[in-house]
Every structure is written in C-alpha cells, then in structure tokens.
Amino acid sequence: MKANNSHVSGFIILGLSTNPNVETLLFTVFLIIYTVALIGNIIIFTLSSTDSGLNTPMYFFLGFLASLDIFSTSTIVPKMLTGYITNSKAISYYGCVAQLFFFLWLVGTEILLLVVMAYDRYIAIGNPLHYAMIISRSVCIKITIIITFIGLVNSMTHTYCTFRLPYCDDNKINHFFCEIMPLLKLACADTYINEIVVFTADFFFGICCFFVTFISYIFIIKTILKIQTAEGKYKAFSTCGSHLIVVCMYYAAIITTYIRPRSTLSLEKDKIISVLYAVITPTLNPIIYSLRNKEVKEAFRRTVRRLI
Predict the structure, then answer these.
(1) Could you tell me the CA-to-CA distances from 124 to 118, 198, 219, 297 in Å, in that order?
(2) Looking at domain 10-307, which of 1.20.1070.10, 3.20.20.70, 3.30.450.40, 3.40.50.300 is its CATH number?
(3) CA-CA distance, 269 to 276, in Å (whole number)?
(4) CA atoms of 41 and 56, how far apart (whole Å)
(5) 58-97 pLDDT, tens per residue?
(6) Are the C-beta atoms of residues 69 and 41 closer than 8 Å to each other?
(7) For 130-185, what is each residue's pLDDT tens digit?
(8) pTM
(9) Backbone φ, ψ for residue 152 (5° rounding)
(10) What distance in Å separates the CA atoms of residue 182 and residue 170, rounded to the nearest whole number?
C-alpha cells in the first residue's frame, strides 16, 4: 500500500526507550505530568473565560496560552501513553501527518503568543495610562486570529514539505512523536530543500521571536528598576524572572532542535530536549504565569465558593 508516493503505510514510533522496565516508569511519569498539565491549564482557561475579575488582556492571552497547551500536549502524550499500555507503537501514515500538522500549528502559534504576551506586559508596566486603549479587547481578538493564521501557514508548509518526500523501507521514527527531523532522517530522497525550509522557519520563530521577547523583558526590567519600594521591585523581579526562565528554556529547546544541519543530528539527545518544549513547558506555564498570581488565586476561590 502506498501513500503520497511512499512505500510505507504507517510508522513505528520508538519512543524514549525500548526497555520494558523503563517504559513502565516513563508511563507513570508522563501520566502524572500530563494530568498536571491538563488540570492546570483547564483551570486557567476556565477562570480567564468565566471570572469577571480576570477580564483583562493579560488573562485573555493567558487563557489562549492555556488552550494551546491543552491541545498541544493532547496531540502527543495520549498516543505515547497508549503505546506504553498496549505495547503497540504503530501510527498510520495519515495519523502521523495529522500529529505533525496539529503540533506544529499549536507550537508555532504559542511561540508568537509569547512575543505578544511580553509586549503586553511591557505596555502594561511602561505605559499603564494608555494600556486599555492600546491593548483593547478587539485588538486581542485580532492578534490571536493573526498569529493563529501564521501558525497555520507555517504548519501547512512544513507538513507538505515533509510528506511530499518518499519513505521507503525504514519506518521506525526514533522519537516519541512524529517530528520533522526524525522523519527527514527516514526519507529516501534528498532533504536539502526541507532543511532550508526548517532553518528559515526556525530562524523566524526561534531566533527572531526570542530576540523580540528578550528585548521586551529588558525594557520591562528597566521599568521595574524605577519602582521606588524594595518590596515592589522584588515582586516584579520575581514574576518577571520566572517568566523569562520558562521562555528561555522553551526557545532554547526549539532552537537547539531545529537550527542544525542534518549531519549533526543526534536523535537520542534531541528527543530528550523535545520533552522540554513539548511536555514540560506546557505543564509549567500555568504554574509560572498564573497559579502563583494573587488575582488568579482569588478568582479560583470565588469559583469554588460558587460551586459549593
């Protein structure tokens, strides 16, 4: 059976380990991580959507971030957990296409959203009097539509370029989900054009977006330094610092994974790094960005009281 000029009708996802004992441990760990990610992000999405006290642009973007994290982890982790339970690591050809497409769409959109959120915080701290006028509700909606569309175009481009290639005899993906670089490694054709496309996209989504985000945080820090009270500075630096750590970890993992020639690929190392941006960061986002926030805690208490 052929699919899109390919001799393979499906792939085998090798996962993080082929040792049965290690796989049992991985199943437990990733089940816990996925559960925490789902609960945390669902709470943030629900609160930002329903609580009137969180009806601000910042929480609008945080709610959107939570929804992206819910779907991005759900694109990968359930399939991986099912493989550990059933001992079947097979995925159909078009199942692999769908997994790559949706994951790239969600991750690309999230990268752009982190840039928007950094700029949003800069405006809120640096120009609070005009903040409501600059970042209005309608502006927030337009921004989310634009970055979602850009993420969609990026995903469509990568998915088409990846699966236009022929895949012959070797169908074992040395990764824990259908990723671009491991798939290119299996292709029985020249992947030079694909590597250029991957590098170009990652230069924009990785390096350029990180640079803009980092510059925004520098301006935020400069504004924080003007705060008169030591307590105010400490709280602002604590929040800003934790945000920046997560952002740096996220971008570093993506840049390390994609901005390299094929000859230097180390898939064993890359799939460990991929855990950071595919699983760990979506789990940390609600904790770092929201659940430590006093307003979110109060909104959570109000919601619990209404339910009780």
Answers:
(1) 10, 34, 12, 21
(2) 1.20.1070.10
(3) 12
(4) 18
(5) 889 999 999 999 999 999 999 999 998 888 889 999 999 9
(6) yes
(7) 888 889 989 999 999 999 999 999 999 999 999 999 998 889 999 999 999 899 98
(8) 0.89
(9) -65, -45
(10) 12
Tokens encoding 37: 């990610």
